[in-house]
Structure prediction request, 188 residues.
Amino acid sequence: MTETLPGALPRALPEVPAARSAGRGPGRPVDRGVFRRALAVHAAGVVVITAQSQGVPVGLTATSFSSVSLDPPLVSFYVDQGSTTWPWLRQADHFAVNILASDQAELAARFASKGVDRFAEPTRWSPGPLGAPLLRDVSAHLVCLPYETVDVGDHVLVVGLVAEAVLHGPGRPLLYHQGRFGRFIAHP
Prediction:
């Protein structure tokens, strides 16, 4: 039996009868491939999370960014527990959320790549007032203080308290859909 706090969700995965009949067993209520393909039809905004950790700029691309609360002003994103960037981000005393513009797909791909210096040319950036790298030509940036982290499955939920928000452009977002970057087209 899993013990939970009042109002909290249990951490153990429940038995799902359909999973047993499909031969998947407990704790695997849905086929992983089907789950990934179902999520791929959901379009998501794209951000690059940056920080200065032990004097080194670090960053990663995220599509799990979301607002959490207006009072206090909180935002969140998820990072894979196996990320090589996460240990560096976790040590930072603040981080920046760089909200990418529709023409920044190459920048998003660069910060999603392994084995490259993400801050070398052609990346254009400068240190923000608290030191976190701020990427140039983004639609907006938020500078955040770490507020909470929670291990959730194979990811870590990172919640940040927004200390600064700056708009830079008209706000045409870069989106991620079906494994590709794209642009938003407004419905007439």
Q: What stands out?
A: Residues 15-42 form one domain. The chain is about 15% helix and 40% strand. The helical segments are 17-21, 32-40, 86-91, 105-112. The first strand starts at residue 44 and ends at 45.
